[in-house]
């Protein structure tokens, strides 16, 4: 039988070999021919993890950190590891009920599955974190606290300057400018955070981790050979004086308007207040989006940076520049006077002046000190109608606009925070379009007293004061003085001195003398500070608003521009307080107090009363104020930080 | 010849022992590779038995004891107790049906003092012994249909009980005994029929049965046309052709759909459909896909021992049991896989060689039984990891993690060695 069946042994051996060869052929295709499996294996097993560097810190001019990083904690949960914990106690700490707890766990499982970590509660408030950390051992290993960096503003000031960071939006993600960002990344949205994003963000590191089938990291891939370390963002050092800034914000409390203070010697901005201000800490942490909506909808528009975005007719504060053009063009000399009896009568409609005695405009210096409307209307007309330009509609208007553009008006100055507005200097084209070619110097005579079609921003006015006090030169106003370990060219344009129109020193001397007289004996006497010569100019810009479809006269915007000390200027200021009447009433004291604070560091005892009055004054109209929740909103931050 | 006076290892077939050890060691290495993480304290794990490789090492230790005991047992013991063991095995299987424990959906485990044990693994051995005993007995005439039916019953009864335990994969193994029966004289045409049946089932699953019905009809018509002269001579030929046609049609139209909807479980249907490429459910294909990624990513030379990313990080499910071949494929590549499969082929050919040198029918049948079982396990297991067969949970002999499996294959092989060592003794 065994002999008979010998061939069957061969058949069985052949069956075995046949099966084995099928397997080997298949293996050959799988392992040698097909290359996709190696790629699939890498995608399966390597996790690319972005390591976020800490963002750069921003310091003020005295080295105080005004925007730094704070650590808040996320409570994360691994649903499967949650076992035998006192749920009720955890709910009490987190101030949620059991239903919500269950729902949150279910959400986590839905999002990331039961074995991976999900955020259970993000950016815990300080009190909750405190309690939780003490009893964390009760909830482990299911729950864990994970630190997360957030931005923090220790001085609660300079919100609009510093800006804030937020998660990148879907539209930005599609933009090729943001190609290096991933969804979920945070980046600077406004202010310095936005302008200096590339410097502050640092360099993100990449860590390759081996992961398992549930995407859980298991350790470094190839011993970290392909990893790159995160490099912390660079720190910024500002010219801003945070104490002065906070002081300005306090004075602007209850007022709408702004303060801009610049160091004329290098263009560094010392303070930039937009009133009313908000606490920048409102836009960090877990309440960011809710707070943002509240701020965005508030009647006082706190997110609107009035210092660079609001455009006002400059009013009488424009007169120093009108005078400079006149002096430079030679249409007047410092000794030129004008017979004003209370109004300018050169055009069909009289332009009223505050003063009636003819002596008040006997020369340039007196006219500026008394802010004579007639005098400067006349100077304006003499300039634009000057025969050497062939009359206003040939070259006069254009030449005048050119002067103004040189003074930094009518275009963006180029400050290092975004959203600056250009203001407006009307030129020949503007009037040609508006009056269809039939216009003359009387049409635009109001420009001579800073009214009419001209509009400037507070920043531009402060910058103009730098030009006047420097006798014809300026640096582009900016916040950032230096960047630590700087290898960029971002600051180059702020290191360059710009010379304006080569106006003679004599002309500047006349203007400066006139402006010191304003404070010494003219309209701005309230701004006097003992021992400091201040050059200043009051202004009252007319304010019209559309009420019930009609153009209605509203309370005027008070303005004051100044620089000090006049001999060696260290600070140039522009203050605007909306709807507060005559410039000397609130704007001049605020400017004066800013100067005193900056130059003397303290407010003299005898001026404390004035400071108190300024602080307590509220000029926001009741209608706007009663609906504003800004004050209570700012109050919430203090509670949160405790 | 007095055995006590000769060397203890007298007559042992060293090549089989060597191949056995090679496979067990490769198995231990692979289980270790599947579980090892860079920072593991290996000795600690071995001492505390908290890793599969540690436990497998322990089971290997027990296996050597088991092998020694078998070696020291008189070979007559196995022939004498074959039927008893078979009866015991069947009883054990029935017992599991009653008091067994569910592990991963199969009701086939017994719990003995903390350790789980799968009797279905052991009954392979009992069945093999019983089959050998029956085919070698003087009364059996394997040319008779009755004997063939009894032999088939010996193999199929335990398979039936195991199917009831929802361990279909292990039950299928019992069909490997038909290879043994073929060797002992089952007509070759049965192999052809079995092969045709497989083709029939596959075509029934892959092709719409109406189309298949038309194809069958056309083929039958052609066959009748071309063999019309023969049919004239012999009318019964026509009857045969029509009967085959009728059977095929019935099978395709009713038996296969019925089996799929009523007999097989949902997951089994899905696995078969996935294997045939009919379904692309990512969940159902996950195991096979991950396993193919792991093996495919090994390339020609492999990633190197302990360098595999797929098998070490749990991408492949059941990677130390049913999918252990993935570790070998990934770490050692095509080259290593061929050598690994070569070890099995060498073992199978050696066992067949040993079988054919026996004078005793019992030992020969037993040896072919061992070869068939091992072959079936290896072929199905590897095919399933590379997407050639549906996912059937059967282990790779001597390599996969698991005490029951290691014990049963150790005993299968060492009983063969014992019987082979005594081949010079009188014909049984």
UniProtKB/TrEMBL annotation, chain A:
GO terms for cellular component: plasma membrane. Residues 257-592 form the Penicillin-binding protein transpeptidase domain. The chain crosses the membrane at residues 12-30. Residues 51-217 form the Penicillin-binding protein dimerisation domain. Gene3D superfamilies: DD-peptidase/beta-lactamase superfamily (3.40.710.10), Penicillin-binding protein 2a (Domain 2) (3.90.1310.10), Penicillin-binding protein 2a, domain 3 (3.30.1390.30). One of its GO terms (biological process) is peptidoglycan biosynthetic process. The keyword Disulfide bond does not apply. Keywords: Carboxypeptidase, Cell inner membrane, Cell membrane, Cell shape, Cell wall biogenesis/degradation, Hydrolase, Membrane, Peptidoglycan synthesis, Protease, Transmembrane, Transmembrane helix. It holds the Pfam family Transpeptidase. It is a single-pass membrane protein. NCBIfam families: pbp2_mrdA. This is Penicillin-binding protein 2. It comes from Chitinophaga dinghuensis.
From TrEMBL, chain B:
The keyword Membrane applies. The keyword Ubl conjugation does not apply. One of its GO terms (molecular function) is lipid-linked peptidoglycan transporter activity. Keywords: Cell shape, Membrane, Transmembrane, Transmembrane helix. It holds the Pfam family FTSW_RODA_SPOVE. GO terms for biological process: cell division; regulation of cell shape. One of its GO terms (cellular component) is cell division site. It is a multi-pass membrane protein. InterPro entries: Cell_cycle_FtsW-rel_CS, FtsW/RodA. It is found in: Membrane. NCBIfam families: RodA_shape. This is Cell wall polymerase. It comes from Chitinophaga dinghuensis.
